[in-house]
Known about the structure:
The complex is a heterodimer.
Chain A: E1 2-7, H1 14-24, E2 28-33, E3 44-47, H2 67-77, E4 81-85, H3 87-94, E5 101-103, E6 111-119, E7 136-142, E8 146-148, H4 151-159, E9 163-168, E10 187-191, E11 197-200, H5 216-231
Parallel strand pairs in A: 1-2, 1-3, 3-4, 4-11
Antiparallel strand pairs in A: 5-8, 6-7, 6-9, 9-10, 10-11
Chain B: H1 6-9, H2 15-20, H3 25-30, H4 35-45, H5 51-60, H6 63-66, H7 71-74, E1 84-86, E2 94-97, E3 102-110, H8 112-117, H9 119-135, E4 140-150, H10 156-176, E5 180-187, E6 196-206, E7 221-226, H11 236-239, H12 260-274, E8 279-284, H13 289-301, E9 304-308, H14 321-326, E10 332-337, H15 342-351, E11 355-363, E12 367-372, E13 375-381, H16 382-385, H17 402-407, H18 421-429, H19 438-441, E14 462-465, E15 472-478, H20 481-486, H21 488-505, E16 509-518, H22 525-544, E17 549-555, E18 559-560, E19 568-569, E20 573-582, E21 599-603, H23 614-619, H24 632-647, E22 653-656, H25 661-670, E23 676-679, H26 687-692, E24 699-703, H27 708-718, E25 722-729, E26 732-735, E27 738-742, H28 743-758
Helix pairs in contact in B: 9-10, 9-12, 10-12, 12-15, 21-22, 21-24, 24-27
Amino acid sequence: MKFGVVIFPGSNCDEDLIYTFETILGQEVVRLWHKDTDLQGVDFVLVPGGFSYGDYLRSGAIARFSPIMESVIEHCNNGGYAMGICNGFQILCEAGLLPGTLLHNTNHKFICKNVYLKPATRSTICTAALDSDEVLNIPIAHGEGRYYASQEVLKQLNENQQVIFRYCDKDGVFNKESNPNGSLENIAGVCNEGKNVFGMMPHPERAADEWLRNTDGRKIFDSILASVAVAK
Amino acid sequence: MRTFALSKQHQFSTMSTLIHEESTLEQAQDLGLLPEEFEKIKEILGRTPNFTELSIFSIMWSEHCSYKNSIKWLKTLPKEGPHLLVEAGQENAGLVDIGEGVACAFKIESHNHPSALEPYQGAATGVGGINRDIFTMGARPIAQLNSLRFGKLDSNHTQWLLSGVVKGIGDYGNAFGIPVLGGEVFFDESYSSNPLVNAMSVGIMNADDMISATSRGAGNPVYIVGSSTGKDGINGASFASKDITEESAEDLPSVQVGDPFQEKLLLEATLELAKTDAIVGMQDMGAAGITCSTSEMSANEGFGMTIDLDKVPTRQEGMLPFEILLSESQERMLVVVKKGQEKVVEDIFEKWDLNAVQIGEVTEGGMLEYYMHGELVAKVPAHDLVLGGGAPVYDREYREPAYFKKNQEFNIDDVEEPSDLAAVGMELLGNPNIASKRWVYEQYDSMVGTRNMSTNFPSDAGVANIKGVKSALAMTVDCNARYVHNDPKKGTAIAVAEAARNIVCTGGEPSAITNCLNFGNPYNPEVYWQFVNAIQGMGEACRKFETPVTGGNVSFYNQTAMEGKEAVPVFPTPTIGMIGVVKDKNKVMSLNFKEKGDLIFLIGESRDDIASSEYLASIHKIKECPAPYFDIDEEYEVQDAVKTLIAKGLINAAHDVADGGLYTALVEMGLPNRLGFDITGDAAVRADAFLFGEAQGRVVVSLDGSNEEAIVEALTEKGVPFSLLGHVTRGKMVVDDAHFGFIDDAVEVYNNAIGNIMEGKS
């Protein structure tokens, strides 16, 4: 599978994703510059974390109007795969490719730490190969990660199994204490109705290198690779 | 010295007066120059300078730029070492060879004065400035550290400063995308109105790709790149060269405003530029902006420059020449381009949507000529402006303060031993100087870049993975300023030794240091005595540990105005930033206990010493005492022994005994895996000194019981003192059969103390 990592001028997790997919997972990866429109025939678009265009207005609000995002939107609308992590998730929400929005953390502070997640469904390629009781230890690093959607949208997400991850404690229990940012229903990641576009606030690419002694994040990427290989 | 008031006092009616009118002694003094310095300037120029020229001299000869009151002593520090690629002061930062073709550029810098007035922007621009020093050289920053000092945390003002500084560091660094891998935070009332904000950046590069901060070749074009120039931060360097007083708020316009997004663009553009051979040299614009970068780059090889100030992109209309010259607007660089290669440079900056404008060219002869509206507004010789050139060098008088003798009268026998040491232990864990700094560091992105090897494997020093090579880079910042205050020479030697100990406990070999020297007013002979002694202690320790000084910064004029009393200098705080190399990243050592039943050894000796400990200061409220026990040779032997144990694979954790003593060290080792300890005291030592004393040269290690014989043999062979303290437990903390509580309770206190105060929960 060919992956493309979108690079905005303020992206800062782009190289981490490239390192993870190219060096650790051995995949073909190309860089997609924000001023370009050509997706170079990639199968899967990755929108990395960072501060796309400085994000002084609202995270991701300007990025969605960039030339490359026009192509990404078209790619997704044609059923192509895309995943946004952290700022990438915010951008995909701003672009209307994912439901809901991400608000300031309830404590109004940037939070960077390891948290625990559990897959909320196995009906997506990100979670298909995971054990549904499996608790993953994955870092977060954001100031605006409180997932919010209207009750109506939330109902739809739950009915269609579009919530992909929820924050939990290390024993897998969903509660207020294990919700780091005040997200509705502990939601850490969602997908679109077609289940080809994914977004999550935690950073699985920061838990993929054996040298960092935590490879829980790699399980998510392995799930993607395994599921798509089977589908093809 | 009321520097900034100048623009209000002196209304310049026309450009013509600015150019043709001679400046006066009164103006010179307003700008912070001494009468004899004004005379020296007239001598250098052979005429009386106009106001613009006077401004240029005043800023370049300010303490901040010229190091005029410190350079004599700084020159005594060791600058050479086997791994140094660049000696101190030659480039924007030191450069150390870490093997396998990788070089490390690193430096620490203060941003104290701006942070005292505007903690958010002050701290943010401190982070921006130090990172620019690193990437200007062509290195990609991979880690940041910071060393912070504030007044007592129970004060609202301190809480305001701490919140602002931490948010400033976080917002800038998080957006810029460089992780924080280490730091320290210390509270003492001497910092109440004058916090210290010291930021360090560590970068790596291919050793051959270094960009020099130099200029040469008449006719080569000179470019300004990055942000536009505004009126912010004018005279920041002068502001940093005087006392913080009640009137300091009037200096608010001296504080710069940061834009991490511009910095990120500048970083990427600069590193692209580093890969070309289109440029001669490059320097970032920090203190004294265009003035400093043009003069330092030119003076390096004896060239000059003509600069057309009309070409400088500005944010405001109608900026005066001296405002453009002195502006400290952030995120700008000066680049000397090889003639004919202009397009290469312009294309790179165009790609990143940044300004890149030619503002002048290199000339023969060493003169700097600044033009505006077609007229020569200032003409000054570059060499005479800079450190090592014509900038003044002073030999200040110093005098041992009375407190130093008094400190020696301290006797441990006069201190009553508390009956409930378990309660004392818990109280210390909740002391903001000992407690976890989690509330602070969770606001920093510590993991971006996927290099932080300490996230899931905590160690005394921060460790960055250098991808693609065998080695990893260890780094730390250390200074216990209470020790330094009580004995500047010994206290500073301890700061270096502690930094080395942290590197060694992490499995590394200390390489080099950078220093950030925060002191009071150098014209106060007692403050200067602290400075001189600190430098002597640092020199001694750096020679012992073979860690040369690659550079750093001096920040004088740090003092706190106590209500109704005379202002007092801050604790002398010579922060040491050290890097070291872990040659085999498989051998990184962590600090946490691994398994119940593992043995706990102390390398080094317990001492009947509580001097300068947090215990003595906060539990007994005794401040007059010497520095803690420290013997540099014993320290070296202990560190050498720890290196051997790690190399032989005999231990599974190592942690140094520092602030809060042995008890705190054991709790910190137990915390990550929620394990306790059962230990026996030392009959020759008071129980409070055994648990809470801060005698130096001690490291706690844990090991699997099967390695007991081997470790005893190894340590006996080394000839270092050691003792078996006890073993790791499932969670209970026991000292001499007395129950000291459970690790879970200790963790609760330790982890939440600062957060509870900051969130108003205690």
